[in-house]
Specification:
about 100 residues, 4 strands, Alpha-Beta Plaits, alpha+beta, four-stranded antiparallel β-sheet, globular, 3 helices
C-alpha cells in the first residue's frame, strides 16, 4: 500500500481546531505541526501588517496517511472545516521508517 503526505496550511484562527480534529480521529497516527509564513495571498485576505510584510502567519501540519484513507480524511476535514481557509496539498511518500 502506498502512503501519502497530507500538508495542511492553516490560518492561525483555525490551527488548533484542525489539530484537535486530527487528534480526535485517532487513526491519523503521528503528525507534525509548525509555525510558518504564507505568501501569495490576495491583499484583501491580509491585515495591514501582513500587507506590508507580504506574508501572513500560519500553521503547517504534515501527516502521513495510507492512500486508501486519504479521500475519507479529506472528506472529514471538508465536512468539519468548510470555508476555514485551510489549504492542502498531497505528496507521495517514497520511503519511511524509524531508525533503530
Amino acid at each position: 500500500m502506498n502512503d501519502r503526505c497530507l500538508h495542511l496550511l492553516c490560518p492561525l484562527t483555525v490551527e488548533e481546531r484542525v489539530v484537535d480534529l486530527l487528534l480526535s480521529l485517532g487513526e491519523t497516527g503521528v503528525f507534525t505541526s509548525a509555525p510558518t509564513h504564507a505568501h501569495g495571498f490576495a491583499h484583501g485576505r491580509l491585515n495591514a501588517a501582513e500587507q506590508v510584510s507580504g506574508r501572513s502567519a500560519a500553521g503547517l501540519i504534515h501527516l502521513v496517511v495510507p492512500e486508501a484513507e486519504l479521500g475519507g480524511l479529506l472528506a472529514e476535514l471538508q465536512r468539519e472545516l468548510p470555508r476555514s481557509g485551510v489549504r492542502y496539498w498531497v505528496t507521495d511518500v517514497l520511503c519511511q521508517g524509524e531508525l533503530a
